């Protein structure tokens, strides 16, 4: 019905959004716990582009997608490790070029100031940790953790620049792989266990940030929160299956929207901390 909208007089779209930003910023000053589910569009605001969730691979020709998917398959890693590692080096270079943005930084601030903040990310680029976030559940693992699939030895790296390619396990000589699912592989189980423990504790507010594909494990925390009357927020450039379900929906760059919410949050917090007596 349009009459509803008309009855609000000349409230413009921009004002409406202002009200929503104010509401979410204010909620963040009241909650004790928050879950932030983050995805590729937040990293894209750092200049890091993705191909089907894989950071740093940019499709220049339509057939490039097939090349990426074939190159980043476990069979290729076994048969032609230099092909897979060529792509991994490209991803490594792009990821290292990217720096965390103000959106990442706001989540760091909230982790410092709220009793309990959890980030559940499908990004494998570690930008959250580089910004300073600590409680991060990496649902898809991380590009820079290398794993020996034979003896399961895992090593953490900041860069692949100094590795001899393809890198091999020091213990058994097997070619190492990144600890993230390659195309056609299942997701790791450990993050799900950790996520479930967090969900069992519950959250006072749940955000989805920069996610365009609502996989069931991403949608579930939002749907559960919604069914329990807990505020849900979606921020991102693309509409999703849940855009009409969440309580607050912001369509746009995650960094920009988080920045505006951070302003509201910061203003309320600083007003509150000013001495009232003098
Ligand atoms: Zn090994």
Explain this structure.
The protein is α/β, with parallel strands linked by helices and 278 residues long. The protein has 2 domains: 29-48 and 99-141 and 184-272, 3-Layer(aba) Sandwich (Rossmann fold), CATH 3.40.50; 50-97 and 146-179, SIR2/SIRT2 'Small Domain', CATH 3.30.1600. It is built from 11 helices and 11 strands. The strands form 3 sheets. A 6-stranded parallel β-sheet has the order 5-4-1-9-10-11, with helices on both faces. A 3-stranded antiparallel β-sheet has the order 7-6-8, with helices on one face. Helix 2 crosses helix 11 and helix 7 runs parallel beside helix 11 (254-273). The radius of gyration is 21 Å and the shape is elongated. The chain starts with a helix and ends in a 5-residue tail after the last helix. Mean pLDDT is 92; it is low at 1-11. Bound molecules: zinc ion (ZN). Zinc ion binds next to loops.
Give the topology, please:
Elements: H1 2-7, H2 13-28, E1 33-38, H3 40-44, E2 50-51, E3 54-55, H4 64-71, H5 74-79, H6 81-97, H7 102-113, E4 116-121, H8 127-131, E5 136-138, E6 142-147, E7 154-156, E8 177-179, H9 190-201, E9 206-209, H10 216-227, E10 232-236, E11 248-251, H11 254-273
Parallel strand pairs: 1-4, 1-9, 4-5, 9-10, 10-11
Antiparallel strand pairs: 2-3, 6-7, 6-8
Helix pairs in contact: 2-11, 7-11
The chain binds zinc ion (ZN).
């Amino acid at each position: 019905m349009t009459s509803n909208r008309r009855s609000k007089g000349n409230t413009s779209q921009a004002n409406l959004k202002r009200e929503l930003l104010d509401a979410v910023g204010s909620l963040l000053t009241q909650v004790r716990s928050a879950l932030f589910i983050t995805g590729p569009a937040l990293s894209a605001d750092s200049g890091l582009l993705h191909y089907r969730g894989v950071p740093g691979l940019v499709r220049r020709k339509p057939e490039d997608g097939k090349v990426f998917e074939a190159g980043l398959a476990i069979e290729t890693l076994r048969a032609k490790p230099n092909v897979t590692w060529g792509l991994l080096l490209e991803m490594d270079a792009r990821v290292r070029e990217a720096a965390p943005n103000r959106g990442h930084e706001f989540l760091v601030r909230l982790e410092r100031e709220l009793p309990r903040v959890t980030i559940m990310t499908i990004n494998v680029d570690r930008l959250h940790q580089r910004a300073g976030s600590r409680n991060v559940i990496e649902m898809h693992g991380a590009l820079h953790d290398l794993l020996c699939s034979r003896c399961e030895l895992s090593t953490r790296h900041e860069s692949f620049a100094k590795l001899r390619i393809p890198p091999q396990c020091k213990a058994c000589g097997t070619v190492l792989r990144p600890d993230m699912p390659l195309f056609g592989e299942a997701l790791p189980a450990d993050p799900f266990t950790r996520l479930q423990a967090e969900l069992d504790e519950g959250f006072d507010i749940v955000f989805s940030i920069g996610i365009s594909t609502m996989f069931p494990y991403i949608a579930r925390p939002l749907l559960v929160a919604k069914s329990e009357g807990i505020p849900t927020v979606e921020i991102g450039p693309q509409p999703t299956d849940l855009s009409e379900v969440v309580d607050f929906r912001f369509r746009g760059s995650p960094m920009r929207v988080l920045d505006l919410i951070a302003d509201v949050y910061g203003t309320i917090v600083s007003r509150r901390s000013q001495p009232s007596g003098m």
